[in-house]
Design brief:
The protein is an alpha/beta fold. The protein is built from 9 helices and 7 strands.
């Protein structure tokens, strides 16, 4: 693959991890046709298909799975080399790719502003998603820094705690349980709940807490962000 480019490898890694050209295009700020063109060029260079296309679903071929491992390693090495060369030049710059759980909407912009005031030469790419998606991005080296609760364990990750993350139950002011000083889990489980989506830490903690109490949640609405949950609850 003498003529494969880093751009093509980056597009391929994104498409292969998402198994979607559309999601890869959104992540890389490209159009889906542009992603398709890059993948087609890379497949011609490889001399074989990298994806099996079954209807609208994508699956990696054996060649695609092999190339994904190699491409991820190559892109990591190139990024590391760039950072080391910049350090040798005494230049602070480059791109910092940060992933934040949705709860970070409430505190991370302040931290980001403080960072930017000290490191104006650094371009920050910020993505907001739930915990499962953030771990997936870490596993595939798609983010340099992840801000989350309960970081994954393992030798490939280094975690530094910097704040607490309380999880609470909220209700509209007029709700009959709003003024209760103590809320038994059984009482909470009987209510129609507005909950975060599966894959978020908030949902995982809620499900596990109720499971241990031998209670089952009655989910009325699922929402993909804490702010949406708050607004739905406030609306009654």
């Amino acid at each position: 693959m003498r003529h494969a480019t880093l751009r093509q490898l980056k597009v391929f890694v994104s498409a292969a991890t998402h198994l979607s050209f559309t999601r890869a295009a959104a992540e890389l700020h490209l159009t889906p046709p542009a992603v398709s063109i890059q993948i087609a060029q890379l497949e011609r260079e490889a001399g074989q298909p990298l994806f099996d296309r079954l209807g609208r679903k994508l699956h990696l071929t054996r060649a695609g799975a092999t190339l994904l491992r190699s491409s991820t390693a190559v892109l990591t090495q190139v990024r590391t080399a760039g950072e080391e060369l910049a350090a040798l030049r005494g230049v602070e710059g480059g791109v910092l790719n940060v992933g934040v759980i949705s709860a970070g909407d409430y505190f991370f912009p302040t931290l980001l502003a403080q960072f930017r005031s000290r490191h104006r030469a650094v371009q920050v790419l910020l993505g907001v998603c739930n915990r499962d998606e953030l771990i997936r991005r870490l596993d595939h080296n798609l983010v340099d820094l992840a801000v989350m609760s309960e970081p994954p364990e393992g030798p490939h990750f280094a975690a530094t705690p910097f704040a607490t993350h309380p999880i609470v139950v909220i209700a509209a002011p007029g709700h009959r349980l709003a003024r209760a000083r103590r809320l038994p889990l059984a009482a909470i489980a009987r209510e129609p709940l507005i909950a975060r989506e599966p894959g978020s830490l908030t949902r995982s903690v809620m499900d596990e807490t109720l499971r241990r109490a031998r209670q089952k949640a009655s989910i009325a609405i699922e929402a993909a962000s804490n702010e949406t949950v708050k607004q739905v609850v406030a609306a009654g």
